[in-house]
Amino acid sequence: METTTQQERLCGIIRTWHQDRGFGVILQTHRRLFFCHIREFDAPREPRVGERVTFLHGPLRREGELPAALDVRLCTPDAPASLPDTLSELPPAMAYAGGAR
Q1: C-alpha to C-alpha distance for 36 and 28, rounded to whole angstroms
Q2: Disulfide check for 95: which of 29, 82, 85, 87 has CB 3.0–4.6 Å away?
Q3: Predicted TM-score (pTM) of this structure
Q4: Rounded Cα gap, residues 43 and 22, in angstroms
Q5: pLDDT tens across 64-80, in order?
Q6: Which residues make beta-bridge pairs with 27?
Q7: CA atoms within 13 A on the CB side of 96
Q8: DSSP labels for 53-101?
């Protein structure tokens, strides 16, 4: 008997985005950070800082680095309300939009 498990999608906000390099960081609902590469972003355009997204928890790329965000999608209007609408609603330390690792 074969069993499959479907991974739950996580919610987050694009915290940083480096358009010239094609990657950024997502701040997840529970205040965890995830690395996001443009290849994993499923949208007709690049993400923008502050946009709400959903994604799958991926593996650590290397020890000491952020886990990967996989299959990243923009949130729909009916997305969970557990996220602030913008980065300005986060505590200052969490809203920092500086460089990614």
Answers
A1: 12
A2: 87
A3: 0.71
A4: 14
A5: 899 999 999 998 766 55
A6: 13, 33
A7: 8
A8: EEEEEEEESSTTSPEEEEEEEEPPTT--TTS-SSGGGS-HHHH------
Task: With CA atoms as reference, report the closest residue to 14 among 44, 56, 57, 55.
Answer: 55
At residue 38, the 3 state secondary structure works out as: helix
Per residue in 7-59, pLDDT tens?
Answer: 889 999 999 999 999 999 999 988 899 999 999 998 888 899 999 999 999 98
CA–CA distances in Å: residue 22 to residues 35, 45, 69, 76, 91: 11, 11, 14, 23, 27
Token couple for 39: 């290849």
SS3 state of residue 39: helix
Question: Tokens standing for 40?
Answer: 């994993």
